[in-house]
Amino acid sequence: MRMRRQKNLDETILGYGDLFIRANYGNQNASIINPEDIHYFDYEAMFGNSSPVWLELGCGKGQFIAELAKRTPNINFIAVEKNPSVLSMACKKIVDEGITNVRFFNCSAEYLARYIPAKSIGRIYLNFSCPFPKGAYRNRRMTSEKFLDIYKVILAPGAEIHQKTDNMQFFEFSIEMLSSNGFAIKNVSLDLHKSGFEDNIVTEYEKRFSDMGMPIYRLEAYVKE
Description:
The protein is of the alpha/beta class and 225 residues long. The protein has helices at residues 9-15, 43-47, 63-71, 84-96, 145-154, 168-180, 204-211, and strands at residues 20-22, 53-57, 76-80, 102-106, 121-127, 155-165, 183-189, 217-223. It contains seven helices and eight strands.
């Protein structure tokens, strides 16, 4: 169900200052990047330090990124979400908890290469991305070839993608696409909560699905040298 736009959303966003960053898409064709469309982030100016930067795509209300940021204060995080109302809620959570190593980016993922410098991201998290079960929408899946091509541009050498999903068909699709597009896969789990995996951070969706008795699928992937 689509979330209704918050009242006074624009004023709320302005109140978050540099914590909330909005994309300026310019040319709407994401596959074409003109020089005037490039607005690469200056991470040191953004965070005030030169720590590594990790990325979460589809951060929702921010439960995962807030906990991860607290556990790893030596890492900077950019959390991406295209729904500004949802992202505003994530901002509030970060502010309320006094977390300083997260910035939020209101952007559709297909435009990331206009903002994220090449070879600059140490890890990408894909937590419960929409599986788009209809075959006609497979190119919208976050592990489709068009998105994997973007990840290969922005990922640093040796960097990893960490994916979790409750959807078996989407997980199988992800394995197929990653394997056929130059990625190696490791640490595959077909039932994460029964695997003994440590340090898992449970997301909002994950708890819902797990409480229903559904298995959680997880993998890690990296670009093969």
